[in-house]
Amino acid sequence: MDHAEAVAKGAVDRYQLGELSEREIEEFETHFFDCTDCANELEAAAIFEENAKAVFLENKRRATGTGLPRAKYEQARACWWTLFRQNPWNAVPSLALWCVVVYQARETLPAKSCPRIRGGTVAC
């Protein structure tokens, strides 16, 4: 394959895209190592491909907000206390649960710590 034939077939672009047959790949690679014009064109195409991927990836990251600095696109994690400051009604279920736990602790712990007497009565 000579340079004119490579240009006519668009061999550089087809090689870059993987559209050449095995025989054409071998011919182009043989030509590629001898032709500086094709080597430069292939290098430019590879650089273009890398840059295009980087631009599209950056656009995707900006659109979805992933991979960007946390301070700019995400809110800081709030501690559980801020739930009560933002909406005081969030405290009601927590307070009810706390009351149940305290009640159960007062009822069951003293009974377990008092010794039982044989007659069935509890002496505390």
Question: How would you describe this structure to a colleague?
Answer:
The chain has 124 residues and is mainly alpha-helical. Helices cover 70% and strands 0% of the residues. The chain contains seven helices and no strands. The chain has helices at residues 3-9, 11-17, 22-32, 36-64, 70-73, 81-86, 91-113. The longest helix has 29 residues, at 36-64. The N and C termini lie far apart (105 Å).
Provide tags for this entry.
single chain, 124 residues, mainly alpha, 2 domains, 7 helices, 0% strand, rod-shaped
Describe, in short, the structure shown.
The protein has about 120 residues and is an all-alpha fold. It contains seven helices and no strands. It has helices spanning about 5-10, 10-15, 20-30, 35-65, 70-75, 80-85, 90-115.
- Which residues sit in consecutive blocks of at least 5 with pLDDT less than 50? none
Query: Helical element count?
Result: 7
Structural class: mainly alpha
Overall outline? rod-shaped
Q: Quote the distance from N terminus to C terminus.
A: 105 Å
Radius of gyration: 38 Å
The percent range for helix content is over 70%
Number of domains: 2
What characterizes the major β-sheet? Answer: none
**Mean pLDDT score, rounded?**
78
Provide the β-strand percentage band. under 5%
What is the H/E order?
A: HHHHHHH
Q: Tally the beta strands.
A: 0
